[in-house]
Amino acid sequence: MAVAAEAKKWRVAVALAWGLHRRRLQPTVVTLGTALSACAKAARWRQAIQLLADLEVLSLVPNIIIYNSAISACEKAGQWQLALAVLRQTQRLRLRQDSITFNAAISACEKRRRWQEALLLLAELLEEASPDLTSFNAAISACEKSGEWQLALQLLMTCRGRGLGDVITYNAAISACEKCGCWQQALALLAALEAQGLQGTVVTISAAISACEKGNAWVWAMELLARCGPMGLQKNIITYSAAISCATWRRALLLLAELEEDRLESNLVIHNCLVEACAAAADWRQALERLADMERRSLRRDATTCSAAIAACERAFHWAEVRLLLAELQVSADRLAFGET
């Protein structure tokens, strides 16, 4: 059964556990625990909850490891309410909870952006046991996903005060700042990361660039992009997308060429950013050239593309092009309404 669990063959593990019962053989806590572990790895939360119920029916004395597996199964499936219910059951049974118990529950809340529940669990953990890096990272990520950047920074400070913190911690905090365009805080976190001797990743830089883009700090965005090479980081499509979003159209075209030199394939998001850059400069000719370039690349335009091109033509008072683009936008809307592709 251990082999089945390691291979994530939950069906085999569960069938073996339930097969024993049908043959009137008494499954042990170890047997059901192995099946629960397999369910956790495969995110089979229904089977995990059923196995917990079987424990009670068979009058087996559970341990915290079994309940941790059940919470983990719920966490991986995004079943945060069930994860919390199982955690509360461990308290009713007076089982000694550990950081693994709480970490799985906090992660379940994080996946569903339940930042308040995640913070309450972290507070409980601070009273019951000692939170580890995983605890803080999951809680910070919950705040990040919910746009609670100030709470994310507070948690980071608490984490650092305990001598904890890694690149994942900083990435989550920088991403929290990025979501609200707090570029100065994002840059400060990047500096703090480097001061601690930690090496940022392409995720770190991409989030910081995106924060600068949202905060209209395009000079800093270009500076960060230029730092990728010296840092030994391979820029990806997300990095370029964030940088192109805040560049002038001439600079954006240079970045597109650089992107292709790096053998990355541009996508609709990249080209929409290019059209928007042309619209910001009221350069209708370049905006229409971008549309033609998309057609050459077999990239299908969407509402964002057309809206940006319309804005460019409007600012230059080219109403004939505006009417054509509006007609195209209407056709696209009709196709969408009737389920056509």
Please characterize this protein's 3D structure.
The chain contains 20 helices and no strands. By secondary structure, the chain is mainly α. It has a domain at 1-126: Tetratricopeptide repeat domain (Serine Threonine Protein Phosphatase 5, Tetratricopeptide repeat, Alpha Horseshoe). The radius of gyration is 26 Å and the shape is elongated. Mean pLDDT is 89; it is low at 1-8. PPR repeats lie at residues 63-97, 98-132, 166-200. InterPro entries: PPR_rpt (IPR002885), TPR-like_helical_dom_sf (IPR011990). Keywords: Repeat. It comes from Effrenium voratum.
Helix and strand arrangement:
Blueprint: H1 2-6, H2 10-22, H3 29-41, H4 45-57, H5 64-76, H6 80-92, H7 99-111, H8 115-128, H9 133-145, H10 149-161, H11 167-179, H12 183-195, H13 202-214, H14 218-227, H15 237-245, H16 249-261, H17 268-280, H18 284-296, H19 303-315, H20 319-337
Helix pairs in contact: 2-3, 3-4, 3-5, 4-5, 5-6, 5-7, 6-7, 7-8, 7-9, 8-9, 9-10, 9-11, 10-11, 11-12, 11-13, 12-13, 13-14, 13-15, 14-15, 15-16, 15-17, 16-17, 17-18, 17-19, 18-19, 19-20
Number of strands: 0
Q: What share of residues are in beta strands?
A: under 5%
Question: End-to-end distance, in Å?
Answer: 48 Å
Low-confidence stretches: 1-8
Q: What structural category characterises the helix and strand content?
A: mainly alpha
In short:
The protein has 341 residues and is an all-alpha fold.
Which characteristics define this entry?
341 residues; mainly alpha; Serine Threonine Protein Phosphatase 5, Tetratricopeptide repeat; repeat; Pentatricopeptide repeat-containing protein, chloroplastic; TPR-like_helical_dom_sf
